[in-house]
Amino acid sequence: MNAPQLNRKITTTLALAATIACAGRQVVVKAGQGEPIERRQQIFVLPNGYRGPVMVIYDQPDGARPKTINGEISYEVPSDGIVRTSFPEEVLMGSTVRFVYKSSPALLQYHTCTQMRLEGLAGDRTAVCWLAVQVGGTGMPDHAVYIVTDWAGIPQNYNRGAQMLDSLFFGGPGLSKFIWREPIAQSPQKSA
């Protein structure tokens, strides 16, 4: 990977982390055809009861143009969990991402599925954790993979997300770097 590609990945990763940490900021950018897009939030509307991976693939010529309602960019997630958007990742970078079922509040989000596993409880409601973000440099389109799951379903749904990545981008099962491993909780340090 050359330096410009590495810098782009680092910048995008930092922007995505800041997006999760900060909400509510309004940004106006230009989409490919010059129309301004006001971005407060990207909202992904899930099919009722959906659990599993949601993959967003950017810059697809035949991809969906999301609805923009009151400055919010809204996508309907299909039952296979794959959202193809005509917008390039650069247009959407920095917007806050939310996942909702129709007529329900936004799902709780975790930075990683490991964090969700360590902080959650078996009775917790459905939430969202991140599996992967890939921005440029490898010949595949920019994409992000989220896992919609309850606490008990994390291993199975994480592995479904890895299989989705394998089948769409890595040429077959078992070739991606994502495999669920049960995290070990660190015991608290005793002070002397």
Which descriptors apply to this entry?
alpha/beta; five-stranded mixed beta sheet; 29% strand; single chain; 192 residues; disordered N terminus
CA gyration radius, whole angstroms: 17 Å
Q: Low-confidence segments, ≥5 residues, pLDDT <50?
A: 1-35
Mean pLDDT: 76
- Percent of residues in beta strands: 25-35%
Shape: globular
State the helix count. Answer: 4
Q: Biggest sheet: strands, sense, closure? A: 5 strands, mixed
> Which strands sit side by side, in order, in the main sheet?
7-4-11-10-9
Quaternary organisation of the protein chains = single chain
Polypeptide structure, described:
Helix content is 24%, strand content 29%. The chain has one domain. The chain has 192 residues and is of the alpha/beta class.
Quick structural overview:
This protein has 192 residues and is of the alpha/beta class.
Q: What's the topology here?
A:
Layout: H1 3-21, E1 27-30, E2 36-39, E3 41-46, E4 52-57, E5 67-69, E6 72-76, E7 82-84, H2 89-92, E8 96-101, E9 108-110, H3 113-119, E10 127-134, E11 143-149, H4 154-170
Parallel strand pairs: 3-6, 3-8, 4-7, 9-10
Antiparallel strand pairs: 1-2, 4-11, 5-6, 10-11
